[in-house]
Amino acid sequence: MVRNAAGKKKVTFSLSGEIVEEMKDLLEREQSGSQNRFVEEALQEHIKRMRRDVLRRELAQASRDPLFLSDIKEVEKDFGQTDTETSELIV
Question: What's the average model confidence in pLDDT over 4-14?
Answer without folding.
Answer: 85
